[in-house]
Design brief:
InterPro entries: DTW, DTWD2/TAPT. Pfam families: DTW (PF03942). Belongs to the TDD superfamily. DTWD2 family. This protein is an alpha/beta fold. It has a single domain, classed as 3-Layer(aba) Sandwich (Alpha/beta knot), CATH 3.40.1280. It has eight helices and six strands, in the order H-E-H-E-H-E-E-E-H-E-H-H-H-H. The protein has helices spanning 3-12, 70-76, 96-103, 140-149, 182-194, 200-216, 225-230, 242-251, and strands at 53-58, 82-86, 107-110, 117-118, 132-137, 157-160. The chain has a six-stranded parallel sheet, with helices on both faces. Strand 1 (53-58), helix 2 (70-76) and strand 2 form a beta-alpha-beta unit. Mean pLDDT is 79; it is low at 1-11 and 238-255. The structure holds zinc ion (ZN). Zinc ion is lined by residues 28, 30-31, 33, 38, 40.
């Protein structure tokens, strides 16, 4: 393999971090969190109706993570307004819904890149346009892997959110302070597309509750990778030794 081939492999790999092991404590059937830290009570009292249709293409390992935010959007919106499709490589003949998204000129892929247009500059943001908002869900490496390994995504209009907001998802390390969780990305994008600032607080409420539960149970507040690099605190992760792995598992909330 050539040097460039190897670097493509690294850049476009999925960064497959093993999924979290199953939790043995009694769990909520909806959010799948232990009952003591279930965030369902913080969902909007009535699921919120929006015009935008959200499709989340989710790396399969993300579904096994304990601290996920996509289900918060799924249950926070009216049924049918958020669809989650799991996979790594989506063969279009197996996914007619994705085929339909590609054909629809109002489909936008929210993923940053050189060709991404600022979502705020999208015109016209007319009241009768129903956008299909496509998001990639996983770690940043996994989301990048999904983008690289599914060529149809290059056919979609690519947009990004120039958000002034800092992520409130403080219990999972993000690449930079401006990187938002899947839930935050979707909520801020819909609020912008539909001029609906009223949806932000109720839809983000479960995320705030989850972070509060984790901090109360001893989880550390995570700084972004960029913050750690800027402050000389970033340590490249070495493969864990057996004793380190055991210690990590003990410290991992939810195990
Ligand atoms: Zn629950």
């Amino acid at each position: 393999m050539s040097d460039s081939g190897e670097s493509d492999e690294i850049l476009c790999g999925f960064g497959d971090i093993a999924p979290d092991p199953p939790d043995k404590r009694p769990t909520c059937s909806r959010c799948r969190r232990p009952l003591t830290v279930c965030w369902c009570a913080y969902l909007p009292r009535n699921p919120i109706s929006v015009r935008t249709k959200v499709t989340i293409l989710q790396h399969p390992y993300e579904a096994s993570r304990r601290l996920r935010t996509a289900p918060m959007l799924y249950y926070g919106l009216q049924p049918g307004q958020c669809t989650i499709i799991q996979g790594k490589k989506f063969k279009l003949n197996k996914y007619p819904d994705i085929e339909r998204l590609i054909q629809d000129p109002n489909t936008i892929l929210l993923f940053p890149g050189e060709k991404s247009q600022d979502l705020a500059s999208l015109h016209p943001r007319s009241d009768d346009i129903q956008y299909n908002l496509v998001l990639l869900d996983g770690t940043w490496m996994q989301a990048r892997g999904l983008f690289c390994q599914n060529p149809f995504m290059r056919q979609l209009k690519q947009v990004q959110l120039s958000s002034p907001c800092l992520s409130e998802y403080i219990i999972r390390t993000q690449p930079t302070d401006r990187c938002l969780s899947t839930l935050e990305t979707a909520v801020y994008a819909i609020a912008l597309l539909e001029n609906r600032p009223d949806i932000i607080q109720p839809l983000l409420s479960p995320l705030r509750a989850m972070c509060k539960f984790q901090i109360e149970h001893g989880a550390l507040k995570h700084h972004s990778k960029q913050y750690l690099i800027d402050n000389g605190l970033y340590k490249k992760q070495e493969p864990p030794t057996e004793s380190h792995a055991l210690k990590s598992n003990r410290n991992h909330f939810g195990s």
